[in-house]
Amino acid sequence: MATVTMSGQKPIYRKILLKLSGEALLGKEAYGIDSSVLDQIAEEVTAVHQMGVQVAIVIGGGNIFRGVSGASRGMDRSTADYMGMLATVMNALALQQALEKHGTSTRVQSAIDMKEVAEPYIRRRALRHMEKGRIVIFAAGTGLPFFTTDTTAALRAIEMGAEVLMKATKVDGIYASDPKKNPSALRYERISFSEVLQKDLKVMDATAISLAKDQNMRIVVFNLRKKGNIKKIVLGKCIGTVVEGCDHAQ
Predict the structure, then answer these.
(1) Whole-angstrom Cα distance, residue 244 to residue 250?
(2) Is the pLDDT at 6 greater than 50, yes or no?
(3) What is the mean pLDDT of the chain?
(4) Is 24 inside a domain boundary?
(5) 84: Cβ–Cβ under 8 A, 6 or more apart, which residues?
(6) Domain containing 156 — which CATH number?
(7) What is the predicted pLDDT for the residue at 158?
(8) 2 domain-assigned
(9) Looking at the domain assignment, is residue 197 inside a domain?
(10) Is residue 77 part of a domain?
(11) End-to-end CA distance of the chain
(12) Which candidate, 119, 111, 149, 115, places its Cα nearest to that of 23?
């Protein structure tokens, strides 16, 4: 049962998957993890979890190592991607500790076997953890090279039966062009999966969008840097851009 907040508002989602990029943990740092940003994310996720919402998280590793950039410097792509997966495990462990400091029970599940620090990814076990009120953090992507953590997020959201995939970014939604280069760029409030693919909007990779489209997994793209946005979305506020099945008039 969803919990009603003190303001009388009830969450519209009972189960969510939050996609965090590794870069989201950078904050003002050039590399690694900004502890203050990590704590803020943990605080916001805990607040949503305390509303009775089941939460799963997929985390990237770009703040430590990005496979694609490694491959562009001459490294074998498979090797580079595996290194990127290991970086996501480091971020998952850091986020786990931050969440548990806020009194939230968690589990980290890794798609690459490393039983000393994380459980192996087992779908039924992850579902059971969430039913018992634990936040599950998925690390190491799909465990396979050439697949991004965006694709992992779409896959895990579908497997967990999430009602929405919440994609955290540095901007407040999907734009027709780069808002940093074009301040008057159009921001979409709602857009279809087909439009995202046809217009080649770079919010998530095409594999992730196609997978979400096939299973009609709603995506909300929002600005993580604005405090309280996660909770606002869960409560049904119009934050960011919603990506879903039907075409929308501009």
Answers:
(1) 14
(2) no
(3) 92
(4) yes
(5) 61, 62, 65, 66, 67, 70, 141
(6) 3.40.1160.10
(7) 98
(8) no
(9) yes
(10) yes
(11) 37
(12) 149
Q: How many domains does the chain have?
A: 1
> Do the Cβ atoms of 245 and 213 come closer than 8 Å?
yes
User: For 32, left (φ over 0), alpha (ψ -120 to 50), or beta?
Assistant: left
pLDDT digit string (tens) for 172-221? 999 998 888 898 999 999 999 999 999 999 889 999 999 999 999 999 99
